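[Automated response] Your request has been received and processed.

Submitted sequence:
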Amino acid sequence: SAFVIGSFYTRVKILESKIKAYENSGRVAGVEAPTPTGVPIKAQAVPPANDSEKLTGDVKLNKDDHINGDKKARILLVEYSDMECPYCKKFHPIAQQVVDSFQGKVAWVYRHLPLSFHANAQKEAEASECANELGGNTAFWRYVNTLFQRTNSGGTGFPLQDLTPLAGEIGLDKTKFKVCLDSGKYAERVKNDVTEAASLGVSGT
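Generated structure:
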């Protein structure tokens, strides 16, 4: 984790300096960002979605995005995640460390990308949206954090029958939560994130 945090720190500092240089030259768009392999690529601004609001630079966030940190942060880490993905489980606490370490300079945006071969991922994503409905952004993150801590990952690492009791553990009304989850009212909300990911060329979590 220390190595990964150090790597993130270095890349964020490089990106900050490049943004500043481009701002000074009037060319914020098209900043080259280092990739994990060290090969520079052109950073792409996230295109506007319906009911979106411009918050930072050229990045536009959806009004229903889940943001951990200051939404006006200089750098936005936009993640497409699956709650049954073992790599997402490993990355989750590291992303939190990045937000905490940079103290307002980095915000983490969580979007859903449940993979078809992870049987419980879609319903878990819907459950997190029910948590958000009942308790707001704070409840959303508490629910997701706890689920990632509990799941063994791999597709069915967290039993679906435990989704409602988990809501009760974090202080949400279990009856209302179950009604929300059973209704499937957020299935389309989750699928919208998946569709948007595809439109951006995101092929995996």
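Summary generated for your ticket: The chain has six helices and seven strands. The longest strand covers residues 75-81.
If you did not submit this request, please reply to this message.
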